[in-house]
Amino acid sequence: MAEVRQRVIAPSARRWWHRLAEPWEIRLRLRPWILGPALAAAAVLVLILARSQPPVPPVAVAAAPESVYVRFVLYAPGAHRVSVAGTFNQWDATTAPLAPAGAAGVWATTVALPVGQHQYAFLVDGRRWVNDPAAPMVDDGFGRRNSVVAVTAGAAGARAL
Questions:
Q1: Is 36 part of any domain?
Q2: Contact between residue 72 and residue 123 where contact means Cβ atoms under 8 Å apart
Q3: What's the domain range around 117?
Q4: Domain for residue 44, yes or no?
């Protein structure tokens, strides 16, 4: 059997190894004239990120052969969030958000609608229902009125009336 020999480590290597194993102390000197601008820059960055909103994803998906892209536009100055809900999305306001479009207070989105008559309304800031002032209206059967868009198919293709 092989004989095990004890290996002698040089004293300088032993000191070096012990220094690695011991806890280290790091001292930093913060200079107030550097810390102030750094904190101000961090605060500005936090404010910018807090005020920014995530981009609204595109809503219009590829239209089926018997559908047409319909653009919904609403002028709602002072609104923070606008969406459109109707019979085409089972009145789910989360599926068709509008995005700010060009001029201040103008919100718009494009949705692929199947052929037929669809009732809809805009939901402003998640609490106030607003009808489309540019569209005809019908009674909803619950004492309110909804806007209406009619999508027809013809020889020239589908179109919204």
A1: no
A2: no
A3: 67-160
A4: no
Residue at 71 is within a domain: yes
Query: Is pTM, for the whole model, over 0.70?
Result: no
Q: Is-contact 110 137, C-beta < 8 A?
A: no
CATH number at residue 74: 2.60.40.10
If we measure between CA atoms, which residue out of 88, 146, 131 comes closest to residue 112?
Answer: 88
Per-residue model confidence as pLDDT tens digits over 27-73: 877 777 777 788 888 888 887 776 665 554 444 444 566 778 899 99
Distance CA 81, CA 102 (A): 15
In a domain, 82, yes or no: yes
Contacts of 4 by beta carbon, 8 Å cutoff, 6+ apart: none
For residue 124, the model assigns a pLDDT of 95
Number of structural domains the chain divides into: 1
Q: What is the pLDDT of residues 116-134, one digit of tens each?
A: 899 999 999 999 999 998 8
